Amino acid sequence: MTNYNTYTLQNGLRIIHKPSVAQVVYCGYQIAAGTRDELSGEEGMAHFCEHMTFKGTRTRNALQIINGLEQLGGDLNAFTNKEDTTFYAAIQKEHIAKAVSLLTDIVFNSTYPQHEIDKEVEVICDEIESYNDSPAELIYDEFENMLFEGHPLGHNILGQAEQLRTFKTEDALRFVRRNYLPEKAVFFIYGNVSFKWVVKQLEKEFKQSSGAFAMPSGNPLGIANADITSSLITNSAEQGGAAEQIIKEIGSHQAHVMIGTKGYDIHHPMRIPLYLLNNILGGPSMNARLNLALRERNGLVYTVESTMVSYSDTGMWSIYFGCDPHDVNKCLRLVRRELDKVMQKPLSAHALRTAKQQLKGQIAIACDNREQFALDFGKSYLHYGWEKNVDKLFESIDKVTAGDIQKVANELFATDKLKVLIFR
């Protein structure tokens, strides 16, 4: 299932290509720059620049960028994460040259005009207010800030409206000149396109682009990502006793609850066992243990899920549920019971085999979403130089033992290692 082609241009840009017979091509730039790359006073800048990158280059204005692919029926989009920013397109094969040209132009030649900033900043502020009106989403950011307090990984990706309104053209340019560099980026492409053509087209685009080569090479300010490795799976509640709990009164008719702790980084040998255990407890299937305990047997929640995120040097594992305020304590007891079960008793051979089969099936179905698969293999190559290999992932899942599952549970799920955040 591998079948990738890779190449590195002279300017340091890495290219990863996966051929397919489909006539729709997915491609884009993924840049190793996100929320954790923001300096003090830049909170929200990565997401701000993602928006503003569409607002004008040396040769295209905002309307020309909008119409560049969409008038051909294509799709142009972007998003920002804690460790990366992605600009990508979906287009018919016959228009791929236009997509490559447009994407390269906006990523490496955007000018961030002040008159566009003055308009777009209010759009971003509306996005922030909309987000603040959704406690089921907001609690995830609040919880991550609770875990990574004082570190950029804990910052809200959107930032604060008051600060965003102070950002100017020179602030955006300062951020992108430090971060939007070819050597910090990957161009990914998935479709029925010649790899040789892709390489030549990108070489051509960069030769024509004064912006990319005018930018300083490397990291001119000597700024590195803040390292969080030393605090991997520690938190202030590890002295013993009950889980640290914070209650925030928001006047909601429903209580929103998160429970969790710091988890494993992407390279950690126990990451795959946690991946499997997380799916057993709170994965997307209706037979996940937390869904059975809280919803199916007791009718206490509409949604309960567990989530794991692995960053380059740390991670996060959490459970979320929403319920009536008077049911919070009962739900917490039921969650605790399920965590205790996996800590105290290893999975049976049958349960382990079934869990592996279920997870591998979910992965196989997810890979059928070609857009998401393209984004996934691009991100893997960007951060780790891995050519995404689903067969190897399946092998890693098959190697997980019941002992591994129990070890992870005992390492992460002890009461005094968990934090609890409640919105009500």
Automatic annotation (TrEMBL):
Q: Return the PROSITE patterns for the record.
A: INSULINASE (PS00143)
Q: Which cofactor does it need?
A: Zn(2+)
Q: Which GO terms describe its molecular function?
A: metal ion binding; metalloendopeptidase activity
| Domain (Peptidase M16 N-terminal): residue spans on this chain | 21-159
Report domain Peptidase M16 C-terminal positions. Answer: 168-359
InterPro entries xref list? Metalloenz_LuxS/M16 (IPR011249), MPP/UQCRC_Complex (IPR050361), Pept_M16_N (IPR011765), Pept_M16_Zn_BS (IPR001431), Peptidase_M16_C (IPR007863)
The biological process GO terms on file are: proteolysis
Family to which this protein belongs: Belongs to the peptidase M16 family.
Record-given protein name: Predicted Zn-dependent peptidase
